[in-house]
Amino acid sequence: MNEKPSLWWIDWRISRGPIVRESIGRFLFLCLLGFALLSLLLSGGVSRILAGRYAVTAVLRAEVPSGEGEGLARKAAALPPVRSATYQDPEAAWKEFLRAYPGLDPLRGTGENPLPGYIEIRIRPDRLTVKDVELVATALRAVPQVERVLAGEDWLPRLLLAGRLASWACWGVFGAFLAGFFLVGRLQERARAVALAGDFAFLAERGVSAGRLAFHRAAGAALSGFLLAAVGTAAGGGVLFFSLRKYPILERVIGSPTDLLLPQTIASAVLFSVGAALLSGAASLLGWRAARPGRK
Amino acid sequence: MIEGFRLGVYSRGATLWDGLDFAFGDAAVWFVTGPPASGKTLLLSILRGERRPDAGDVLVSGESLYRGNAALARAWRASCGHVPEQAIAGAPPTVGDLFRRSALVGGAVRETERKERTDGLLEMVGLRGASTWRISEMSISERVRACLAAELLRGPKILFCDGVVAGAGVPSWEMLWGLFRALAREGNTVILAERRIPERWALAAGDPEPVGPFRVYRLPGPAAEGKGGPG
């Protein structure tokens, strides 16, 4: 029994109760963080809400036939920042007008529809910027059949700035929770290191180097942190998936449940797990300093 | 062979001892006695490679513990067993935990094997079924014997015992005598530090070698001893 001792999962081998309790707590916290992360990734903060409510309207000239209007809508939909482009003919525009302002039927007393057809263009949430909106508006203004483009250029920058600030606030709250995870983890590691100080001193007395102990503890913490974060994010993603399926209204704010399986979403979840692993390892190292066995 | 050359220790602003030479041969039981506060625990720490002496050096099989390779010193410490003077501080909650902790140093061992050996060792030191006992509720004698058994779990080549004979108490002396001789017979080295040596052990050991404030006895091996133990 005099071979070099393995120090992997040393805390688990010495004292299992606290590890189990801490792991359950961390897992639940990481589930919550994973859910929040995926929600933020899919929604882009408040970008999806803004993109759902904002539209560029291209008012067509009165003489443009329906077929030509639909063709223009298809061309507009092909522009990179555009999520959808829908042509409304003059008759549909009139009905929509009456729904918005009931009782104004007499305006059409002469029989002529006073409203032209138009194309409603929705921008992709990730491309909702002044630059992209200008790109779309400029492209539409160059078309002779378009009489006017309503893109709200006057107030759009302020709206986007407010949206950006709101998104940063959301990510800030997420970051604060992540920092809380690190600080709580550090306190737990410190408390455990102090509780196991006698065992570490025992090992140090018998030739186990403090650096080797610290490395193996940190590596174990990082590995378990990665696994807990990966499983927690998957569980959080599962809850989000079923929530979006059950309450489709949430899709307007967060996005489609199928977006959870996009490569960039999965890559972000893996990055988050790596980050959680690094934080767990750092918390272990910092906690270790509290119980580092010294020399007599 | 563990050799101490010109060892010196300065403590509390004064020289505790200086220029001491020791030589502890392999496969033997060595008994170091000294008055209170003479530095017996310190001497064991120095011999174990845990505390660098303020003067002199310790050689193990010809290699310096303090001026040589650090990995060698760590390997030496890993091969040693150490039963410290008893204190509850830093001790694990139960006797079973004590063995689990000891097994960590020894490398991979199956749980069932460890439990079997734990039960056997506890029985050998007169603590049958003590693995669930709380250390804080045990007497000094029981604690000493439990710690000794836990160290033996790893089968250390060199065993340092600080105050074990006094702590274990007179009723355990015969058991300890037999145990230490058996360890030496198997090629192990045992170094004991005590304030005084039991009278019959001293008679069996013969004249001690005086080294500074210490007296160093070499206990006789089984072949050298007549019938009946001196415990």
Note the topology.
The complex is a heterodimer of chains A (296) and B (231).
Chain A: H1 10-14, H2 16-43, H3 47-53, E1 56-60, H4 66-77, E2 82-88, H5 90-100, E3 118-123, H6 130-141, E4 146-150, H7 156-195, H8 197-205, H9 210-246, H10 263-288
Helix pairs in contact in A: 2-7, 2-9, 2-10, 7-10, 9-10
Chain B: E1 2-11, E2 14-24, E3 29-33, H1 40-48, E4 55-60, E5 63-64, H2 70-79, E6 80-83, H3 95-105, H4 111-124, H5 140-152, E7 158-162, H6 164-168, H7 173-185, E8 189-194, H8 199-205, E9 209-211, E10 214-219
**Count of DSSP E strands of chain A?**
4
Describe the main β-sheet of chain A briefly: 4 strands, antiparallel
- Poorly predicted parts of chain A: none
Task: Say what the CATH topology of one domain in chain B is.
Answer: Rossmann fold
Arithmetic mean of pLDDT of chain B: 88
Number of strands of chain B: 10
Helix content of chain B: 25-40%
Distance between the termini of chain A: 27 Å
**Number of helix segments of chain A?**
10
Coarse shape of chain A: rod-shaped
Helix and strand element order of chain B: EEEHEEHEHHHEHHEHEE
Rg of chain B, Cα atoms, Å: 17 Å
